[in-house]
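Quick question about two entries, pasted in order.
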Amino acid sequence: MKPAWLNKKINLNTCSGMKESLRGLRVETVCEQAMCPNIGECFGRGEATFLILGKRCTRMCGFCNIEKGKPEPPDAEEPLRVAEAVARFHLKHVVITSVTRDDLSDGGAKLFADTVLNVRERSPGVTIEVLIPDFRLSAEALRLVSEAAPDIIAHNVETVPSLYPMARQGSDYRRSLEVLGFIKEFFPHRKTKSGIMLGLGEREDEVISVMKDLRSVKCDFLSIGQYLAPSRRHYPVKEYVEPRRFGLYKEKGECLGFLHVESAPYVRSSYRASEYLA
């Protein structure tokens, strides 16, 4: 049973119009695919995180509700449709993410770059954040996305390294740190961001160690939220972390030098994303 501080009411009535419009444009959002608990709040104020490169992921993370399996070929028209959605809803800050596409030679980097460029051309005043997979640490792919000049490049480490074998099959903690480090090394003015979930069985000292690792690669922003299992088939919740501890992690992150830390039970990587640049 969830504790009282997680009894958040989700009002889907506030987002029915936006969902209908997105369906008409054939544009997907991670808000729906990942069953995000903030969907009503974000859609209600006209914010969304766009999901490109299809609905099926080639990784087998045990915590994620994104469908696994063989993906469809990339759709070259998708960047235009995302740009149309951004313009139609007059968004001021856009988050673009994707499933992991290990089946593609560039991991989908070109479609990321094309989406950023199309959104920027159609809506010049918008700030753009991309939440990217690790691209298997391809320098060419990381350069391609970085050169499209998004305002924030995010890549989530998700959890502590000791839990990767159980929760993040197919991913590598050190590789994720190197993704963030590569961007800062070759594009030092680009803001970087990462996120972790709590409640998977991590220890407090492990969380602090991850925060220090992220700062060692000059990561600018950090999000910390409570993991909530999408179903009984997914990785189980080991602990419901009290709000007080989220507050302590926020204080620690700020002391370590992060420019902005969002840390609370219902925080997700893209939640209130525009506030990181405020």
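Here is the second entry:
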Amino acid sequence: MGTTMQKIGLFEAKNRLSELVERAAQGEKIGITRRGKLAALIVPVRPKLSLKEIFDEIEGIRKRAKLPAGITVMDLIEEGRV
């Protein structure tokens, strides 16, 4: 993302909760402050992935990993590098 998080005071957040939830649903992250210090976050819900989607993502990561010939992920795990 790379965008800055908007911070809003607790009192104002209570008055604008519906709006803030809608903004979070659209992908925005909003910090709630209490006495000037960050106390909570309203963040978008990540969609729940199926096992197939999770394994497909893992496989994609493996394909992009570009390990040296003859080296496996298990070799790296056993060496304590992962």
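Reply: The beta strands are 6-9, 30-34, 37-42. The chain has two domains: 6-42, 47-82. Hope that helps.
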